[in-house]
Amino acid sequence: MSSPQSRPNRAPAAWLVITTLDDPQAADTLAGALVEQGLAACVHVLPPGRSVYQWQGRIEVDNEVTLLIKTSANRLDELQANLADQHAYETPEIIALPIEAGLPDYLNWITQCTS
């Protein structure tokens, strides 16, 4: 029986950042701008889905587009600041998840595109 491999004890080089917008055209525009500015290697724009959430004491239901943004550690802070500044929402969803494992060539590509 093999033992589980331990994960490297280092900061991840790549991150997956998630945000949502209520306008598909705005999502496409934002995705293109992030890649053009080198803040993201790739932005996957998902089709609209329904979000159910609590806002200012009320339950809200809206259609939103989800963006899955792949970036490097060295651009993460700038990306988050850009999203917060450019976003139409008063309190946008900006969640950053570390990519701790993946195809090395793909992870290197993310770093190259965002350097």
CATH architecture: 2-Layer Sandwich
How many domains comprise the coordinates?
A: 1
Which class best fits the helix and strand makeup?
alpha+beta
Shape: elongated
Rounded to the nearest angstrom, the radius of gyration is 16 Å
From N to C, what is the helix and strand string? EHEEEHEH
What is the residue-averaged pLDDT?
Answer: 91
Query: What is the CATH topology classification name?
Result: Alpha-Beta Plaits
Record field, number of beta strands: 5
What are the segments in which pLDDT stays under 50 over at least 5 consecutive residues? 1-6
Q: How does the major sheet shape up?
A: 5 strands, antiparallel
CATH class: Alpha Beta
The span between the termini is: 42 Å
- Report the β-strand fraction as a percent range: 25-35%
